[in-house]
Specification:
Transmembrane segments: 48-66, 78-96, 102-124, 136-160, 166-186, 198-217, 223-242, 263-288, 300-318, 330-350, 356-380, 401-419, 439-455
Largest sheet: none
Membrane topology: Multi-pass membrane protein
GO molecular function: transmembrane transporter activity
Strand content: under 5%
CATH topology of the largest domain: Growth Hormone, Chain: A
Radius of gyration: 21 Å
Oligomer: single chain
Number of strands: 0
Distance between the termini: 29 Å
Subcellular location: Membrane
Keywords: Membrane, Transmembrane, Transmembrane helix, Transport
Length: 459
């Protein structure tokens, strides 16, 4: 794809892709070092779970706001703020000795990640020459999947030889490099809505809604009554948010764009369905390999990293296919492969041959790349230049929201099959029943996403 880079855009691509590597690297890396981290901070199992939930909440709360702020104040400016926040909190996290301080800083780090994620995509989409947007976004997609693949093994190496604290310090140093590169070598910037005001009321209601969704999803197993109340609050707050946005002169998310732009709406819906279905595969396969197949933590981690590696390698292929064929057709093939891979996973047994597992992971890895890149390209192009920031923020919001919905579905299913017992070798049959049911449902959901993509293509 190197020939697709316009002169003067190299530093921009390097800065954005490096930042988009750092964010998923930290998410996957922290999950891999939770045991020594929890031991050092004297954290309970519940508090370890909250470490991921607080980070996800920061991302969920500020994805839309980050894109909207970029539209108003400039994508480069907000990108720099986000990277600065991410680096500063990362450095501070390396010195933390208490769980409450760790959780607070992880939330703020998620906010910073949401800002540079939304505005980084907006910068690439705005800078890309006509017809080259898929190529530019292809680099960013490969960086994200490479970060996911490298996170667990590199984090384990750092924690084993130094300390989990060096994971945060090292990432903070990398983000300082990204900040300096963007600050000193990139002068491009866009602010298509600089005369508009920021929708603080809508942002507050949306933040409350996503907070309720995040904690409602994470509390389903331990406190179902509380979780039900939080999820009901999420629905009510989301309805209030939609009502406010429809009557706002400068909305955080222009719902009228969704109503009048069929391509934009169906592409976003297909993305939400897809993200709601495949996020749980990593969770299920990690337990399946360790509890059901007797793999070590390291072996399971390497196996799971293979899917992200496949995604990183096939994303450039997706960019080339988008240049040769309509992106809508490429994304339709991708989401169909995702559905097929999930259905294959739904038929796995404890004695299934390993080639079947690799085939399923290959279908999922290639399918996600072939769907996500062209679908994101379509979303950003259909939104128009004036709404690139909002569209970038929405892309991140549907991803995070889909993952939270997926988490809630898995929690409910495991609670039904296993009750309050932790998954282990003694109840592996019940766990397998829950896994097969969920993955089969998620595979069928992707057929619904195929319908959305085909309906969009006809538009």
């Amino acid at each position: 794809m190197s020939s697709a880079i316009q002169k003067g855009h190299g530093s921009l691509l390097l800065a954005v892709c490096a930042s988009l590597f750092c964010m998923p690297f930290m998410m996957a890396g922290v999950n891999a070092v939770l045991p020594p981290l929890g031991l050092s901070l004297h954290a309970s199992a519940r508090e370890l779970g909250l470490m991921g939930a607080f980070y996800a909440m920061g991302l969920a709360v500020f994805q839309l706001a980050g894109g909207s702020l970029g539209d108003i104040w400039g994508y480069r400016r907000v990108f720099l703020w986000g990277v600065g926040i991410f680096a500063a909190t990362g450095a501070l996290l390396g010195f933390v000795n208490s769980v409450p301080a760790f959780l607070a800083l992880r939330f703020v780090q998620g906010v910073g990640g949401a800002m540079f994620n939304a505005c980084g995509l907006a910068l690439l989409a705005s800078a890309a020459p006509e017809g080259k947007r898929a190529s530019y976004l292809g680099y960013s997609g490969s960086a994200v999947y490479a970060g996911i693949a490298c996170g667990p093994p590199l984090a384990g190496l750092v924690a084993g030889n130094l300390s989990w604290r060096w994971l945060f310090w090292g990432n903070a140093l990398a983000c300082v490099g990204v900040f300096l590169l963007m600050r000193c070598a990139v002068r491009l910037d866009w602010s298509p809505a600089k005369d508009k005001s920021f929708d603080w009321k809508g942002c507050s209601v949306y933040a409350a809604a996503m907070t309720a969704l995040t904690f409602g999803s994470s509390e389903l197993a331990d406190a179902p009554a509380l979780a039900g109340g939080l999820l009901a609050g999420f629905v009510l707050l989301l309805a209030l948010f939609c009502r406010m946005e429809l009557h706002s002169p400068h909305p955080l998310l222009d719902l009228r764009l969704l109503a009048r732009n069929r391509v934009f709406a169906l592409s976003s819906l297909a993305a939400f369905i897809n993200y709601s279905s495949f996020f749980g595969v990593m969770f299920f396969f990690s337990l399946y390999l360790q509890l059901g197949r007797g793999c070590s933590v390291e072996q399971a981690g390497l196996f799971l990293a293979a899917q992200s590696l496949i995604q990183a390698l096939t994303t450039p292929l997706a960019a080339r296919l988008c240049a040769a064929f309509p992106p809508g057709r490429v994304s339709a093939v991708g989401v169909a492969l995702c559905g097929l891979g999930l259905l294959v996973c739904g038929f796995l047994r404890l004695d299934s041959p390993y080639w079947l597992l690799f085939a399923a992971m290959g279908l999922l890895g290639s399918g996600i790349s072939l769907f996500a890149l062209p679908n994101t390209t379509i979303i950003l192009e259909s939104a128009g230049r004036d709404h690139v920031g909002q569209a970038s923020g929405l892309t991140g919001a549907v991803r995070t929201g889909g993952q939270l919905i997926n988490m809630a579905c898995i929690t409910l299913t495991l609670g039904f099959f296993l009750g309050d017992q932790p998954a282990g070798p003694e109840n592996i049959d019940a766990f397998m029943a829950a896994m097969r049911l969920d993955l089969t449902i998620f595979g069928l959901l992707n057929l619904l996403a195929v319908g959305c993509v085909l309906a969009r293509n006809r538009s």
